[in-house]
Amino acid sequence: MFDRRHVLVCLLAVLLVQSSGGQQSSSGRPVLRIAAAADLQPVLPPLLAEFENQTGIHAEASYQSSATLATQIINGAPFDLFLAADLSFPQRVIDAGLSEEAEPVAYARGTLVLWAHNDSRFRSLSMESLKDPALKSLAMANPEHAPYGRAARAALEHMGLYDALKPKLVVAENIAQTAQYVESGNAELGLISLTSAVTPRLRASGHYVPVPQDAYPPILQGAVIVKRPAGTQLAHRFLDFLASAHVQQQLEAAGLAPAK
To answer: For residue 139, which of 49, 116, 182, 240 is within the disulfide window of CB 3.0 to 4.6 Å?
Structure first.
């Protein structure tokens, strides 16, 4: 259950989106409004620009945790397409009767990594670094709101480390904020998305190791088209674009493996 502050944040976000106008940009082009999981923040902008160049459709994305976005959509935020970091939050939108689909469309698979600064004492980084008693802080996303947070908690539990590390956790609202925490030095290590770890900034300032994939459930990222007459066809066109071989290659280079 969300606390009062979280509900107010969601309502404010709904009002901001609603105040942004209709379904056309200032240039008169049709607008596709996308609710995008935070791990897509480093990935989507060039794809949105390429999509617009190909189709003439202007796409705008709002990035938050998947839980926050699902709540906003259910509360009436006028998004046309929901690109989540798992399948459960799009399913909530379906269960609320806000989509024509019976189940989410898996468009990619996320990867969880352990990241450290190059100038930290964890230069020889490995999963064993989490067992170092000198470790002071570990950043992770909130498992209640963020699928990568669920994966991080599952990995720590799989290693038998969650209870021991719980007092050292620095919990962020979403995976993008988790990367900010560890990159800024507010945490020594961070369990972040590969999409964040391979950005030029984090590549230059740190290094990472993949978390073994058998340590956490697969992070299948799901999409659902929101039932809005003005944007349904636009959303279908973007999903087709996202599923194309060319774009799937770009997603993989940015840290998102094919869903299948």
So the answer is: 182
Asked if residue 194 lies in contact with residue 111, where contact means CB atoms within 8 angstroms, the answer is yes
Sequence-ordered list of residues with C-beta below 8 angstroms from that of 246, at least 6 positions apart, any chain: none
Q: What is the pTM of this model?
A: 0.86
Q: Give the 3-state secondary structure of residue 50.
A: helix
Domains and CATH numbers, the chain: 4-109+219-253 (3.40.190.10), 112-210 (3.40.190.10)
Report the chain's mean pLDDT, rounded to a whole number.
90
Instruction: Count helices and strands (H / E) in the chain.
Output: 11, 10
Bridge partners of 59, per DSSP, are 32
Percent of the chain clearing pLDDT 70 (strictly above) = 89
Alpha carbons 256 and 58: distance in angstroms, whole number: 23
Q: Say what the alpha-carbon torsion angle 198, 180, 92, 162 is, to the nearest 10 degrees.
A: 90
